[in-house]
Amino acid sequence: MIGYILFTVAAFLPLLIYLRNPYFLADLNYAIVAIRIGWRLSKIKKKFFSILDAFLDKVNKDPEKTFVIFEERSYSYGWADRESNRIARALSAHAGLKEGDTAALFLANEPHFIWVWLALAKLGCVASLLNCNIRSKSLLHCFSCCDAKVLILGADLKEAVEEILPGLKELGIRVFVLSNHSDIEGIESLSDKIEKASDQPLSPQLRANTNLKSPAAYIYTSGTTGLPKAAVVNHERVWVASSLLSFAGVHSSDVLYLYLPLYHSSGFLMGLCGAIDKGITVVLRQKFSVSNFWKDCRKHNVTIFQYIGEIMRYLCNTPKKDNDKDHKVRLAIGNGIRPDTWADFQERFGNIGILECYGATESNIGFFNYVGKAGAIGREHFLYKLSCPYALIRYDTEKEEPVRNSKGFCIEVPKGETGLLVAKIKERTPFYGYAKNKQQTEKKKLRDVFERGDLYFNSGDLLRIDHEGFIYFQDRIGDTFRWKGENVATTEVADHLLAMDFVDEANVYGVRVPGHEGRIGMAALKLKENMDFDCEAMYQHVKNYLPSYARPRFIRIQDAVEVNGTYKQLKVKLTNESFNPEIIMDPLFFLEDGKGYVPMTPEIFTAITVGKIKL
Ligand SMILES: *[C@@H]1O[C@H](CO)[C@@H](O)[C@H](O)[C@H]1NC(C)=O
Ligand SMILES: *[C@@H]1O[C@H](CO)[C@@H](O)[C@H](O)[C@H]1NC(C)=O
Ligand SMILES: *[C@@H]1O[C@H](CO)[C@@H](O)[C@H](O)[C@H]1NC(C)=O
Ligand SMILES: *[C@@H]1O[C@H](CO)[C@@H](O)[C@H](O)[C@H]1NC(C)=O
């Protein structure tokens, strides 16, 4: 009898569990991996071990293993180790770098980015990873946030640095270029010095005082307003971010295709550092190329790649081919893919797992959708919530602030409703903020959320959690929008527009475009009296000073800023009116690729909405 009952229970238990929660196994698996990773992090906490140590481990175990493939060359772990020894010695001898110093890297995606970063780590130095698209005032600003002593730049970026040399000189910064000679005063050559240096290992004593809380890198973000900010990434954070590849079930035989910029945290922390942790091969590309994507994947037996939503759409938009499913890719990790693209992609290119993630460089919270449910950015898990308490709170989009109850506390939204994501700041989920920017750091903190004296990180993102616990991204608040996977700070763009002598006021915002993720840049300008909008001058200016993703693609000229609404109401209205010439009676301009600002027409509008003009 008892045997019979046990048998019945054993037979039906899985069914019962499944009926109650069809994701039971995925949830269980998540819990097991999370506990394993937590255990490992606690070990690293006891006895400090950096991502550089993980690299050196791989070098010891298998020096011949291919580490990086770039263009037609491949470099082994052993080779990378020796090359970074040389660079470290050259930098120590000629730039006087030592433990605790910061050096800024201004390099495109190329192997030297990795070698120089490893070299800095070997000296116990902090790498400040500058965005190689930024120029002039922004570049100088980024540079001055991190107190770097030295700037190391790629030979192809000399011109951008020449422009700010006087400013760098004022800050007393040594500038080195990765080439054999330099004919510019104030820029010293580095490659010749590297060539002459020894490749013998450096003593770990050089970095003896580095610990889990020491900064490992500065990574720039345009999280909310103004100029880019340097998020402080310490060694603990490096480990947390790079463990994503463990969650994804990556093993040492995998090959990662990496074309995302190494100066962002997805490419650098999750991609590169994650790859080093797993000891895998990285196929590095300077930039994404839709025509070479699958060719590269086939040629190098790529098994994993990282994406941003746009990339997946570009891939789906290419003409179908017979060999679409002929590759070894098994997993795509990234964020921002839309549900329809998700389905298209899998149908077209085969059974590739998609791991959609959510997080930000500086944030103390992240999610990923380990179940693979199309459209969700993550899934709630009680274990995660226990270790990283977070909540979605009611938010007033007009006033741009959280709604508070009569006692002054925030209100958690019920399941299914959209709310602002906030995450508790505490010992285990710290928020380190931005280097030398107390004001912006404070702006990301929210106090007295659920009780007096508590402290939360304000993500600035509106999310929704459904009844099954899946998390969906809804929108981003405040003065940023996302386009082509990059955050654009509206105030920074407005500052650049205001530099034109005919612009009196500038209001920058992002507008949605059918069939595209994120929002594209648009500006409403009020011109100075008796001045005209100079298309050519404006085009030259935005081209010179703003990376392509931040340039306003649409500009509308307003006679006056409406007076009755608040500034914020105005922005909501402008955003809603978008760039439709049928609705907007003001003069309206469109930034045509390679041509400049041209008057907007209904034909252009239609071509954009049906996707004939690619933005
Ligand atoms: C520098 O010169 C050496 C030969 O002396 C050459 O092998 C190397 O490729 C050169 N490096 C650069 C960056 O031009
Ligand atoms: C890719 O895999 C195939 C078959 O598994 C193998 O023959 C080929 O050598 C591999 N190519 C590379 C670049 O590893
Ligand atoms: C401002 O006033 C005008 C006319 O009185 C009205 O049509 C418009 O809706 C008002 N705008 C706002 C944002 O209240
Ligand atoms: C935008 O305008 C349309 C009418 O054109 C209106 O139905 C809609 O509610 C508006 N949305 C917002 C967010 O104001």
TrEMBL record:
Listed PROSITE patterns: AMP_BINDING
EC main group: ligase
Keyword Transmembrane: yes
Domain AMP-dependent synthetase/ligase residue range list: 57-369
InterPro entries xrefs: AMP-bd_C, AMP-bd_C_sf, AMP-binding_CS, AMP-dep_synth/lig_dom, ANL_N_sf
GO biological process, one term: long-chain fatty acid import into cell
GO cellular component: endoplasmic reticulum membrane; plasma membrane
Location of this chain's protein in the cell: Cell membrane
EC number(s) per entry: 6.2.1.3
GO function terms (MF aspect): long-chain fatty acid transmembrane transporter activity; long-chain fatty acid-CoA ligase activity; nucleotide binding
Topology term for the membrane: Multi-pass membrane protein
Keywords on record: Cell membrane, Fatty acid metabolism, Ligase, Lipid metabolism, Lipid transport, Membrane, Nucleotide-binding, Transmembrane, Transmembrane helix, Transport
Residue span(s) of domain AMP-binding enzyme C-terminal: 493-564
NCBIfam families: PRK08279.1
Annotated family: Belongs to the ATP-dependent AMP-binding enzyme family.
Protein name: long-chain-fatty-acid--CoA ligase
Species name: Cyprinodon variegatus (Sheepshead minnow)
